[in-house]
Amino acid sequence: MPSLRADAVRRRARRTVVIGITAAASAQRGEGPVGRGDGT
């Protein structure tokens, strides 16, 4: 079903954006590129 694939792509894109925002916030706080709670 195309809607399932679109939903998966949207979810992955949103997770990438969240990780990017978390990494940027961590860099601003001086914690390094890996933020807390992003699974890595």
Provide an overview of this structure:
There is one protein chain. Helices cover 70% and strands 0% of the residues. The chain is rod-shaped. The protein has 40 residues and is mainly alpha-helical. The chain contains one helix and no strands.
What attributes does this structure have?
40 residues; mainly alpha
Question: Main sheet, how many strands, which sense, barrel?
Answer: none
Helix content: over 70%
The secondary-structure element order is H
Topology, number of strands: 0
Which segments are poorly predicted (pLDDT under 50) over 5 or more consecutive residues? none
Please render the helix and strand layout as text.
Layout: H1 2-29
Describe the structure concisely for a colleague:
This protein has 40 residues and is mainly α.
